[in-house]
Amino acid sequence: MTTAIDAAPTEHPPHPGGTVLVRRHSGLVRITHWINVVAVFFLLISGLQIFNATPGLYLGNYADFDHPVMSLTAANTPSGPVGITQIGPLHFNTTGFLGLSIYNGQWAARGFPGWATVPSYQDLATGRRWHFLFAWLFAINGAVYLIAGLASGHLWRDLVPSLRDIRGIGRSIVEHAKLHFEHVREYNVLQKLAYLGVILVFIVLVLAGMTMSPGLDAAFPFLVDLFGGRQTARTVHFVCATLVVLFIVVHIVMVLISGLWNNLRSMITGRYAVSAESETHAD
Amino acid sequence: MLTRRLPSRRNFLRGLGVSASAAVLAGCDRLDSLSQSDWFRKNVLHIGEDINTAVQRFFLKPTSLAREFTEADISKKFKANGSTDPDDPEYLTLAANKFADYRLKIGGLVENPMEFSLADLRAMPSRTQITRHDCVEGWSCIGKWTGVQLALVLEKVKLKPEARYILFTCFDTLEQTLDDTGRYYETHALEDAFHPQTILAYDMNGGVLDIPHGAPLRLRTERTLGYKMAKYIRSIDAIDDYSKISRGNGGFWEDRGYDWYAGI
Hints:
The complex is a heterodimer of chains A (283) and B (264). Chain A has 283 residues and is α+β, with helices and mostly antiparallel strands. Chain A folds into two domains: 19-55 and 122-281, Transmembrane di-heme cytochromes, Chain C (Fumarate Reductase Cytochrome B subunit, Up-down Bundle), CATH 1.20.950.20; 58-111, no CATH class. Chain A has helices at 27-53, 124-152, 154-159, 163-167, 169-177, 189-211, 214-219, 222-227, 230-257, 260-268, 276-281, and strands spanning 19-23, 56-57, 70-77, 80-87, 90-93, 99-103, 106-110, 271-275. In chain A, strands 2-3-4-5 form a four-stranded antiparallel beta sheet. A two-stranded antiparallel ribbon of chain A has the order 1-8. Chain A has a two-stranded antiparallel ribbon with strand order 6-7. The longest helix of chain A has 29 residues, at 124-152. Chain B has 264 residues and is of the alpha+beta class.
């Protein structure tokens, strides 16, 4: 493996045709990525603490307590207490995880379990402090990323799929399904859509979070109209956070199976090994 | 080579899993102790809510109104939270007589300390508003409130120039303590006290305000979370500093870690 950009293949190439290291991620993308990792981690665990204060989701302006769209509850049954996850008309027994879990060696009725929240014990006030602290880190970091990404053309150039990308989407899905990964400088179309998608989800998340504020609703009345009510906004906020978790899971799995060290190095030092062949054909 | 690499990768991942769960457990303890550290709470955790306050103060004009709804939007069930049936002797005596002997005392940094009976307050111009009540716990209810604008009452008693906050002292004890710090109270900035939608409500949903929702008189500050809206109001005082009152954070829930400017 060589370290110079556009260099010729080495004497002992790991793949036929050899690899070269290219600069893949700019310093700004790398820094904002890792700040985002920290911020999203704390936002998720503090968000679950806040959710636990009212472990149900509703639609509209006010909470119709008898008809949640989703809820995590505990109930007593003849065979002992159970945790129930309700989504629409469906009910699942989630004893031990959702609705009812063990905390400090005892059964506790709570939405999400202690190991998933900060603090681990029930404390809405402190959960809110963690949440808003990292919400601001997240928002400022995200704003820097978006503004720099727009100004430098990174978002347009690297994330918005081209017409050719869109036409090749079927082929890309097949390649992913076969776990066959081409190592080239550019993102493939599924990556582009996933990264653009998660940016969009983050923006909706922030707007839905703001809509839960009675103060901001008085200052910006259109926020409530955008979501169709404060309770709907709370539900959207939760659904978007779930999508973020889904993104993180898929993202980590893809990083692991498509070359852990190469991917990690590219997000730390910026350098990414691509097939030498793809580089000579490029441009 | 492949057969040798796969188990080792599995072992590697298993090792990663074990160390990850150990790290999670250690991390939980670390985050719990940070959550309880006075220094960390005061100097780090507080930052987010300080920025919230500054940003909302910047965008919220004194004239920005909370949305008002129609009769059709009123919640079927309006949840009552916090104290719902105070058993403080003074309150029970007043409640037994349907609050006929209730007198709202207004004092502190005012030119003319005054007392108002419920009849006095009802004789003043009233405001009715159908608004969304947002609890810090995440739920909302919509109700119709009728009362007198706090601004009208404060104009009668005339604030002294050094007055900076309005203190609401309540009848109810929400937490049993030895030093009376479990009694409910709240403080508000003058900007919010004089807001047109800030009313002392005596009616709810067209009837007389009931005990679970704060009879005989409760505060409505529609641009804040519910815990700022003191129920069972006993007296109102104009003050210049709340750091000497109760535990010094400007309200019952503020003394228990919640933010003073509860706009989000």
